[in-house]
């Protein structure tokens, strides 16, 4: 059976899909904050497909107005050395898809972590983009705004 969708109904479907997705993201944030006790600031978005290490949830802090994309990993424990570490993500930080933030790393505010980057050490300089494995600063002196968006 073929369903003919008029162009008028397509925006309604997109709107409904966005509402459902946004509701699921809010439920996910509620679970991360209230059940796992992860510190997450206001207006932060965590993709449903992002992995936040729940082995040491109190060791993870994410600032306000940040965005964690799909399949990004933020780790808080070192399995080999049996250590729990404090991992901190600042305000206005964007973690790109499939990037990895290793345990014990601090990323200050206003930083963009490129997709696929592996952050092995602290990023202590604001208004930069880091990329690569291991992640290094590839661009600096930028204006980074809400959710890590580059301002012009």
TrEMBL record:
Keywords: Acyltransferase, Transferase
UniProt KW Transferase keyword: yes
Name this protein carries in UniProt: Acyltransferase
Sample GO molecular function, one term: acyltransferase activity
Family annotation (PANTHER family): SIALIC ACID SYNTHASE-RELATED
